[in-house]
Amino acid sequence: MARRSDHSREEIREMALEAAEKLIAEEGSKALSARKLASAIGYTVGTLYLVFENLDDLILQVNARTLDRLHARMLEALAPLDDPTERILMLGHSYIAFADAHPHHWELVFEHRLPPEKEPPQWYKDKVRRMFALVETELEPLAAGRGSKAITQAAAALWSGVHGICILAISKQLDVAGVDSVQDLTHSLMSNYLKGFVG
Amino acid sequence: MARRSDHSREEIREMALEAAEKLIAEEGSKALSARKLASAIGYTVGTLYLVFENLDDLILQVNARTLDRLHARMLEALAPLDDPTERILMLGHSYIAFADAHPHHWELVFEHRLPPEKEPPQWYKDKVRRMFALVETELEPLAAGRGSKAITQAAAALWSGVHGICILAISKQLDVAGVDSVQDLTHSLMSNYLKGFVG
DNA sequence: ACCTGAACACCGTTCAAGT
DNA sequence: ACCTGAACACCGTTCAAGT
Question: At which residues is the DNA-binding region annotated (chains A, B) (predicted)?
Fold first, then answer.
């Protein structure tokens, strides 16, 4: 034992992140623990702390990868469409579809809290910002002559709305409310908002 | 020790819930633990398990009380208003204001997850249902001639939207998006949606 | 230099034993 | 009957010691 050098730091990092993603997908984030992760990759706990600052840091890395996948998925979904309204509605639908397909990963992105004094690093904030930016870009053709401030606000309102639907859907609270189709609800939210916004 | 009978089961229950609420308000739900709670009320851990099924049960009771307060607060905010549009906008604003005033309690209501096989009891679901019902009631005068299904969906869309704003605001992600006023954003979301829905 | 494994200070939950 | 406190099976994190 000690000094195995079977894997580089980078390899261990990648193995740990993949093991974490598997655990989260299959059993949810509550099942994630340093000891389980370490044994899944054939190392001891101590080794994880050589590669990650702590568990919060590891989760941040996992979340960054989830945000990357979500962003890529939304771009893909957009690609075949031309009509501005169709494109913006597709953003909502692909967001919901991603959350539905990967509920545990999606939840972790939005429910993980850093200790109150700690802020996420700038590169991470940029990934979040990119989500809003996607909506802003698609909104522009629909917001004839509106200032960039109005567009920022409309993008935030739309994304908040779709996001709220996702959360209530995942926590089963929309069933309680008597909603039968989450995608219909998303369509109602976005199209009615746009009707009001566009005028 | 043993057999103190200083307090009835009901009294211990109330003491524990109040201690939990204090801890959550001051330090957030991560600071909540059975041992801390027990020592705060002058009993040992074992006693908590005589009064509550487990920690999940205790948190459910805390959340029920939070939902009761939130509901009461929204009714109060509604009382002085007559105009239907003003009333429904006020629902959104008072919801946001409550979340802002009691962020840790509000977060716990919507982020606490029961083990996947366990459902919340019916009396708890009713408290959630009541929130949607409040919106439906206020929506009715504005939805001339629309079926009850359309109203249910519109209420769900509005509440999801406001809820989403709350979440992103509490997790500081709206700052990242460049939003300066959460209340303005709420107003934009609700009034634009209503314009689209009514008109 | 790299990794271990034991230690520390915590958890939630149970239940035999004490009064 | 009521409550304790020790036990069990876990946590995250650190770091002296081994190769």
Answer: 33-52
